[in-house]
Design a protein that fits this description.
This protein is an alpha/beta fold and 223 residues long. The protein has helices at 10-21, 33-41, 59-67, 83-92, 104-118, 151-162, 170-177, 185-203, and strands at 2-6, 26-30, 47-51, 74-78, 96-99, 125-128, 131-134, 139-142, 145-147, 209-211, 215-217.
């Protein structure tokens, strides 16, 4: 098993990594939000242990961005003890919430429980019509044939697929394309429209529907 630990506090991160490695777990470490998100999205990780207070990008933003393209299990660890904090991150898609300080034994138990719950439930692929999106490898096929997608095209398509059956605003799609970046309002529409046009050319005109004044939607039916 490979676990990604994202925590800017060196001593806490190293203690968790050392404890998990002692049990045979392979650990990848990240000390800030952007690095942690990039490593999570790169694949090859089974679970993320995520602190909330991170430089560069708050843990809540890392979690929300990750959830737009991945169902990878995430355990949030934080010194925040208020119920609203726990409820907030669970609503964002966290699989569990562990208050600091905690023991490695308790973390290991939480990891086992989360992985048991997620077995068979983590979506590694989604099929819409003749198009299949493979999340771990960030690739797509149409009619069984590989289709070359850029990183931005995949990010936008993954966001729509994760929210299939629901309208996704341009702002949400822009956040999926450029996580954590502030993009001028006048540029949002153009970037999204260009990527949608490319995806329609590659994957079929009927895959993505435009809802004027609201955003875009992919039909909820799976192939």
């Amino acid at each position: 098993m490979r676990v990604l630990v994202i925590d800017d506090e060196d001593s806490a991160r190293r203690a968790v990594a050392l404890g998990l490695r002692a049990t045979g777990v392979e650990v990848v470490e990240a000390a800030d939000g952007p690095t942690g998100l990039a490593r999570a999205l790169a694949g090859g990780v089974d679970l993320v242990v995520l602190d909330l207070r991170l430089p560069g990008m708050e843990g809540e933003t890392v979690l929300a961005t990750l959830r737009r393209s991945s169902a990878m299990p995430v355990i949030v660890v934080s010194s925040k003890r208020h119920e609203d904090d726990r409820v907030g991150v669970l609503d964002l898609g966290a699989d569990d919430y562990l208050v600091k300080p905690f023991t490695i034994r308790e973390l290991e138990a939480r990891i086992r429980a989360v992985l048991r719950r997620s077995e068979g439930g983590v979506t590694s692929a989604a099929t819409i019509g003749d198009v299949t999106l493979h999340f771990p490898s960030r690739t797509a096929t149409r009619g069984g044939e590989p289709v070359a997608l850029t990183a931005q095209e995949f990010a936008l398509l993954a966001c729509l697929v994760r929210h299939r059956g629901r309208i996704v605003s341009r702002a949400m799609l822009e956040e999926a394309i450029h996580p954590g970046e502030a993009i001028p309002e006048e540029m949002v529409s153009n970037v999204v429209d260009v990527l949608v046009l490319r995806l329609r050319r590659k994957l079929g005109r009927d895959l993505i529907t435009t809802r004027r004044g609201q955003g875009f939607i992919i039909d909820g039916a799976e192939g």
